[in-house]
Structure prediction request, 322 residues.
Amino acid sequence: MTQTEMDARIVRYGDLRPCRTAFIDAHTPGSDQKENFTIIGGGVSESVDQHVHITDALGFNIGAAGQPPKCRNSLHSHRTAEVFFVLKGRWRFFWGRWGAAGEVVLEEGDIINIPTGIFRGFENIGTDYGMIMAILGGDDAGGGVIWAPQVIADAAEHGLVLAETGRLYDTKKGEHLPDGVSPMPMLTTDALDKFPELSGADVVPNHVARYWDLMALAANSPAKVIGETGKLVDRPGFEVDFLTRGSLVDDAVQSSDQHTVLMIMRGHWRLNRSGGSTVLNPGDTAAIPRAEEYSLKPAMTGEASLYRVVSTDDPAGETWKK
Prediction:
């Protein structure tokens, strides 16, 4: 792999290209300032304007959401895993049919593996622009987003209509559903009754890991965060490890027979590959192909941490069932 090929598989935080019309609530007050980023894979954006940085199918998707203070992402659900860690800011995650069943506040570095099959939303409750990094299960991320009925109704009042095909149409721009294409149907009462109302006591202990706990667990070796033997036990089609400067022997060569993605949380990390060497910074994402050898080490003194995502052969389906 040449240096150019290697660089093409790294998405720098400063190069991320946002889409401000990615979802049905893009015009709804309170949600109309959010930005969506699709870093690796097709993602779940409903807009043709969404830029995809790396289109490879790895068995999971990598994305991000950026929002100013008091901006929220409306209640929705997924058929596959949705994992977030906080890169910048302070965020409140909430869930349930009306968003009132439970909630948890996450600080920088904290990670949440939201149970599939529940409505969830999130908002930036910090004082500055915030960013959360996302891992979505499956190459097609479960076929898209399932919106709570009130979200669809609110969006229609502000000019956005989601077609049954999954594409978004903006009536304020003169767009209309094509002939023969119907709006995305709202969930029926019977379907809504199947979405569980989990309390914070149901979700937080088994689905949230705190940054400083992981720093301690990874002091001498990588900490398994999500996986069959992870702190958050799950098999969503990928595993997530947490690494600190003490987790790896400097320049120790490693590889995997699965796709690997490195997501930098804190500090600066030197990545050595067959095509050369580069430094990864907070917010950068690097895709490592199957069987490719690489090595990592912190490039500077001070705090250093990252999340490593590795595909598995587990099906990317529901990870929680009522």
Observations:
- The chain has a mean pLDDT of 93.
- The chain has two domains: 3-208, 211-311.
